[in-house]
Write a structure and sequence with these properties.
The chain has 84 residues and is an alpha+beta fold. It has a domain at 18-65. Helices cover 43% and strands 11% of the residues. Strands 1-2 form a two-stranded antiparallel sheet. A hairpin with a 2-residue loop joins strand 1 (38-42) and strand 2 (45-48). The longest helix has 17 residues, at 49-65. The chain starts with a helix and ends in a 19-residue tail after the last helix.
């Protein structure tokens, strides 16, 4: 019973998904709705949607400054942490 609960009940994540939007558009919408809501928790560190968005934008601007073009794949390797 416990195995079924863990593997089946807790993994039910069915939800309507606006397929006309890209993931970054959905994220930006969440930032506008709740910029102070916690988006990432790692050990004792928490990041809000606003903070996470600001960090992502800084990285994007840095990559553009290095010459990365739209739709150009970029590998970013980090240990699992809020920086990832």
């Amino acid at each position: 019973a416990e195995r079924g609960y863990l593997l089946e009940e807790l993994n039910r994540t069915e939800a309507d998904y606006p397929s006309q939007l890209c993931i970054h558009e959905l994220f930006e919408a969440r930032v506008r709705e709740a910029p102070d809501r916690v988006a990432v928790v790692h050990e004792a560190e928490e990041l809000s949607y606003g903070e996470l968005n600001a960090r992502a934008n800084r990285l994007a601007h840095h990559l553009v400054g290095l010459g990365v073009k739209p739709d150009q794949p970029v590998a970013i390797c980090l240990e699992r942490s809020p920086m990832m």
